[in-house]
Amino acid sequence: MLARFGRFVLTGIANSLVGWAVIFAGLMAGLTAVAANVAGYGVGLLLSFTLNRHYVFGVRGAVSGGEVMRFLVVFFLAFAVNLVVLLGSACVFGLSPVMAQVPAIVAYTAVFFLLSQFFVFRRADSE
Fold it and tell me: What angle do CA 114, 48, 69 make, to 5 degrees?
C-alpha cells in the first residue's frame, strides 16, 4: 500500500501542475479568472480520475457512472475536510494561513487516498 500511496502523491502533483498550467494558459489567452479556474480544475479532475484509476489503483475496463460519481463525492468530501482542518488550524490553534495549509493538505490527501482505495476504485466485479 505504501507504493500505491507514493503513486497517489505523484498523481496529485502531476494533476496540480497540469491544472495550474491550464489556468495560467487560460489567463494568458484572455479568459477571466473564473473561466480559467474552471478549465484548470476540470482538466485536473479528469487527469486525476484517469491516473488514479489506471496508474494508482490498477482498474481496467469500462468506466462506470457509479465510479465517476463516487470519485466526485470523495473529492468534495476530502475538500470539505481540507477546509475544516484549515479553518480549525487557523482559528483554534492560531496557525498562520500558510502554516495551516500543512495539516489541511495532509488531511485532504489521507481522506482522498483512503476513500479512493476502499470506496471509489473497487474492482469491477464488485460493481
Answer: 70
CA 124/CA 98 separation, integer angstroms: 41
How crowded is the C-beta side of 110, counted as CA atoms within 13 Å? 9
Residues 118 and 57 sit within 8 Å (Cβ to Cβ) = no
H helix intervals, the chain: 2-28, 33-51, 65-91, 97-115
Q: How far apart are CA 12 and CA 32, in angstroms?
A: 25
| Statement: residue 80 has pLDDT above 50 | yes
CA separation for the pair 114, 78 (Å, rounded): 10
Which among 82, 100, 81, 105 has a CA at the least distance from the CA of 90? 100
Domain ranges of the chain: 1-58, 61-127
pTM of the model: 0.86
- Do 52 and 11 contact (CB within 8 A), yes or no? yes
How many of the other CB atoms lie within 10 Å of CB of 11? 21
List, for residues 108-124, the tens digit of each pLDDT value: 999 999 999 999 997 64
The pLDDT, as a whole number, for residue 123 is 62
